[in-house]
């Protein structure tokens, strides 16, 4: 049989493959947390490096400030992400309990909500009533349906700790890259800055490319867009340091 590019897609849509996929519990994606942490880590440390270079500070000052910001901002960002995900979980659980209470107190009203939701999707007559009866027969399915259809909330279990650790790890790993040239004493300050610039640009571009592979976007376009965003942040930091040196005498 001649191989076709559609073969893997056909295999994924075989009834048994679909059944396995739908029966597998959904897990929250950690890729957005890694992307957020990586971009912010690189922006944070290279912004410090750029500002220090623009202000004329030494390599040791840039290194100390960079690592201090790397650890403090990385921890702060991880905690913020943890609290954000936890608040989202609490909100979803609150809505779930509220819907459970509504089903207990006004079941016919909740059935009417299901009826109108699926009527708007094109169901009518006897088929619509069968849908309403089927959903309202299972309490958990009923609550989950209201959670998604009425409130627009996801049912995927969120993990605040996993999101926080992913963000922190990506922040530290990527954010450390622009600081590495400043650990090389045989380079002068300009060479260290240019090497840091090259590493930061590479990190931005790779993050953009990685994001495109996960979300099926154009690779080069995504890489360049992330590079431009990071470059703009670094440029602002450099300009701020340079202006501070000129206007306020900040620097060596």
UniProtKB/TrEMBL annotation:
Gene Ontology MF, one: manganese ion transmembrane transporter activity
Source domain of life: Bacteria
Biological process, per Gene Ontology: intracellular manganese ion homeostasis
One Pfam family cited in the UniProt record for this chain: VIT1
Cleaved signal peptide residues: none
Keywords: Membrane, Transmembrane, Transmembrane helix
Bilayer-crossing regions: 46-72, 164-187, 193-214, 226-248
Keyword Membrane: yes
Gene Ontology CC: endomembrane system
Keyword field contains Secreted: no
Extent of Basic and acidic residues compositional bias: 1-19
Membrane topology type: Multi-pass membrane protein
Region (Disordered): 1-24
Subcellular location: Endomembrane system
Name of the protein in question: GMP synthase
Species of the source: Halomonas heilongjiangensis
